[in-house]
Amino acid sequence: MSARKKFIIDDSGQDKELEDALYDVITGEDSDLDYDFGDEDIADDPAYVPEITEEDDEEDEEENEEEDNSLSTMVRSHQSTSSHVPSTASTSERRVFWKSSDNFDPLPPAPRFELPNTVAINLPPHDYVAKYLTSDIYEQIAFHSNQTYLSKTGTNLNTSDKEIRTFFGVTIMMSYLRFPRIRMYWDQKSRIPAIADRITRDRYFKLRASLKLLNDFEIPEEIKSSTKFWKVQPLISCVRNGCLLNSPSADVCIDEQMIPFYGKHQARQMIKGKLNPVGLKNFVLACPKGLRLDFFLYEGKGDSVIEDDRFQSLDIGGKVIMRLSARLPPGCSIFMGDFGEKLL
Question: From the first residue on, what is the mean pLDDT of each consecutive set of 10 residues in the chain (344 residues)?
Fold first, then answer.
């Protein structure tokens, strides 16, 4: 036995019971407790040999047989339950192998675009405007304006189709100049002779407040309920008929635009981010150079856009595209905005 320091717990003559074990615990040299009760005790203790009897052997054999039986029953139960579960290997995806083949049947090619007969192209300015605003619309406005003014005031407005034509021409010129106030076109410092020499200021405002396209009492309720623009529908139809005379190109575009309008109307909308955020939304079919081919005004929530039942499942963008592209000849390429993504 190695020489180690001995710690005496009691000086009263009792035997030294803790020797190397206490020293090892205090110093941390050995993590196991090693109690040393003296060399004589260790030498006298015989080596421990476990006694095994026949009863112990029989009990061990019975326990082993029980464990084997329980294990075999668990294996059989697992096999019986797994037989009812479909194997994952049969449901796994199969690999796809591509093979080269000489048989190739692509989609039929798109029809070739044929330029239709050109109508009203390269016209003088007067004739070009007359394509969108015909003489009939001026006569209609003059007639119904006189009729309505007489019924409300008892006096005659005494306007004519020629004066209505002048009114429209002056208004178009104002849209290009864009003075902050309409009265500035007649003021002495900012006077515009092309406007002030053709119509007086008071007469212009009087016509502006008395324009009528139809007689409200002659319009049936069915037409009034079918569209929110029934009061100006004759003018819209006249301008649209002029757009339909324009020849489409091989590439066309469908998009929306805002018509500035700050008056009171059910179809007026406010869309942030637009150049003109407040106004009426107009869906337009146009050529790459900006020539209008067709359009229609959006009436807001509840507008069916298109009456065909085949397209009622589409969203607003899809209905707009199907409506404006109905008159296009075969072979046209249509370019659309973000509202047409769901149609593809």
Answer: 47 52 57 47 51 52 55 51 48 71 70 62 82 94 96 94 96 94 95 96 96 93 91 95 90 92 90 89 92 92 82 85 88 80 57
Give the pTM.
0.64
Please count the other Cβ atoms lying within 10 Å of the Cβ belonging to residue 204. Answer: 22
Q: How far apart are CA 215 and CA 179, in angstroms?
A: 33
Identify whether the C-beta of residue 263 lies closer than 8 Å to the C-beta of residue 280. no
Q: Calculate the alpha carbon distances from 324 to 78, 316, 320 in Å.
A: 67, 12, 6
Note the Cα 81 to chain centre separation in Å: 49
**For the range 197-204, what are the long-range contacts, defined as Cβ-Cβ under 8 Å and sequence gap of 24 or more?**
198/166, 198/169, 198/170, 199/163, 199/166, 199/167, 199/170, 204/167, 204/170
Sign, CA dihedral 159-161-164-169, equals negative
Q: Which amino acid is at 26?
A: I
Residue 251 bridge partners (DSSP): 333
Q: How far apart are CA 173 and CA 139, in angstroms?
A: 21
Q: What is the number of H-type helices and E-type strands within the chain?
A: 12, 5
| End-to-end CA, the chain | 94
Kind plus residue range of the DSSP H or E element containing 252: strand 251-260
